[in-house]
Write a structure and sequence with these properties.
The protein is α+β, with helices and mostly antiparallel strands. The chain folds into two domains: about 1-40; about 50-165, 2-Layer Sandwich (Alpha-Beta Plaits). The protein is about 45% helix and about 20% strand. The protein has helices at about 5-40, 45-50, 80-95, 125-130, 135-140, 160-165, and strands at about 60-70, 100-105, 115-120, 145-155. The protein is elongated and about 105 Å long. The mean pLDDT is about 85.
């Protein structure tokens, strides 16, 4: 029977324990650092404002983005088109006053016939679709709409009161 060298075994155990302690210490430090940095909280957080704006923990919320594009009606008279777009602008104003529409504006010329965007502050595409159908330019088929769920800053609506103070000529 072979004799076991206890000195070598003890040396191996001591070395293994030392390495294990180093590995455990490394992982403990690593996970502590991740936890500290990953859960950095905002010192300016306003819980009441976040609640009012329906913000999630990241200050974000769900909106509905509408991309308006040229509709199929290519034969409308200039008068009918002007009337529909006047109604379009009035409808935008109404939806803003109701708090349903928080962004609206035209897009520059492009190859996709995109004409403008809406961002609705409503919980579903179905509700946004109903609101879009109240637009006279959409009813006249001068504009068509594609609707998408969009995740953005819950503070987006907060720009509206400021926007009323900066235009010089009524848009």
């Amino acid at each position: 029977m072979k004799q076991i060298n206890l000195s070598a075994v003890n040396q191996f155990i001591t070395l293994t324990k030392s390495k294990m302690k180093n590995i455990i210490t490394f992982f403990a430090f690593f996970f502590t650092a991740i936890t500290i940095f990953a859960q950095n909280t905002n010192p300016n957080f306003d819980a009441d404002l976040a609640k009012k704006l329906n913000a999630d923990d990241y200050g974000m919320k769900q909106y509905i983005l509408v991309i308006l594009k040229t509709g199929d009606n290519k034969s409308a008279s200039k008068e009918a088109s002007n009337e529909a777009f006047r109604g379009h602008m009035e409808n935008i104003g109404r939806l803003v006053k109701e708090g349903k529409l928080i962004v609206a504006g035209p897009l520059g010329k492009n190859d996709q016939t995109y004409r403008g965007i809406f961002i609705f502050n409503v919980p579903s595409i179905e509700e946004a679709r109903e609101l879009v159908t109240t637009d006279p330019a959409v009813k006249a088929n001068l504009l068509a709409a594609d609707l998408y769920e969009w995740y953005g800053s819950a503070a987006l609506a907060e720009y509206l009161p400021v926007s009323e103070k900066i235009w010089k000529i009524q848009p």
